[in-house]
Amino acid sequence: MSSFAEQMETLAARSKSAERQALTEEATKTAVVLPFIQSLGFDVFNLDEVMPEFVADVGTKKGEKVDFAIKIDGKIAMLVEAKPINSKLGETQFSQLFRYFHVTEARLAILTNGKEAWFFSDIDEPNKMDSKPFFKFDFQNHDRAQVQEIARFQKECFAIDSIVEAASNLKYTRAAANYLSQQMNEPDDDFVRLVGRQIHEGPITKSVSEQLKPAIQAALNEIIRNQIQDKLSITLGSSNTAPTPKPTPTHEAPQAEIETTEEEIEGFMIVRAIAAKLTPVSRITIRDAKSYCAILMDDNNRRPICRLYFNSATTKNIGLFDESKTETRVRVDGPGDIYSHADAIEAVVQSYLKT
């Protein structure tokens, strides 16, 4: 039996194939949705586990049906509503699922088009589906952490209370992360006043706020830089713990140690900030080398985003990549100039998200 992660990779290939061939909702169900439900450990051929076209009468509307009701021990655990793979998920689709949700005992609902799956619960108000999903899963582009989240929904380990608790934590953690990310890029007045009251004696006037704003922004960036530097130190340190054979003496000069500079870390943070609108920043990684510092997608050297050539004392360059992974070096004065090449960085990140 293949691992769950391997099943998700197989599902990713199915989704890409279906995107080219599936033209209807039924084709999407067959190609992606049913295999997805099966991968969670539910028998799609057993009506005691997966009930297709489940009738969910809503008020005066009779005969309303949801595509699949997934049962555990005879009780409805999840509702699944499918849409054609080339349709865009949005409010129109989940408003339909919203109606079904409150007339069943399910506390989880999934809306999917075979490319994405949106997960809903009743975190804000019992028995009323939240208006926003607590988790979105991209079948074609996902990381290990997202696969681990999906694994919670497997039949063998399904525990509704822990899932809803995790959903609540995930929802608020991501909301907090988005808010703090916005404050890092451009602190708003309320945030400046909040921090200002802790570090400034006296009223926070407009002039005081203008003085504090860049200091707060710099402090947030410094915290992130320090955390990254600590992680890099741990990584580099652990890679040097294994014993190595004593080298044969030679007349060659010893190799210089790789040192990730402050400018490289700053450049990495800027690339992360640019890519944040497209993908979770955890997918943007740094890998330093002697001649350049590589910024990669998913820590995969076959997915380069850019390279920072900051080691020279006189010139600095950034290597930009296009969709064919052809590198073009551009002269820059410092990390701040990376913002001028945001379009190129966004384009290459977008190209990796499509493959």
From TrEMBL:
Type I restriction enzyme R protein N-terminal domain: residues covered: 26-125
Chain segments carrying region Disordered: 236-257
InterPro entries: HSDR_N, UCP035009_HsdR_All3000-type
Entry coiled-coil feature ranges: none
Highest taxon listed in the record's lineage: Bacteria
Pfam families from the UniProt entry: HSDR_N_2
Protein's name in the database: Type I restriction enzyme R protein N-terminal domain-containing protein
Source organism per UniProt: Salipiger thiooxidans
